[in-house]
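User: For a reading group we're discussing how well predicted structures match intuition. Take HalOD1 output domain-containing protein. Before you show the prediction, I'll give you the sequence so everyone sees exactly what went in.
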Amino acid sequence: MIEVVEYDIPADESVGHAVIRTVSDFKDCPITSLPPLQTVIDVDALNKIFESDSNKDPHVIFNYTGLSISICSSGFLTVNTCHPVPHETKSDS
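Assistant: Thanks. Here is the predicted 3D structure of HalOD1 output domain-containing protein, as structure tokens, for the group to look at:
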């Protein structure tokens, strides 16, 4: 069964905080029990991408705690159990 939570991030909340809070609600666990978001993505860079007033249309997708996290330029956050992003692998060739 696919589970999905959608959240419209308010202008006064950082994207990083919204991710942590939404995942905590999704998993029904305290925020303090989650691993640091910084272990999977540069949180400062993530916040800056969505704070910018540029005409760009960013869309970021990453895995966190076994969930797929998707954030679009409008500040809409989706957390789901389906379609985890494959990890990029580097070869030594």
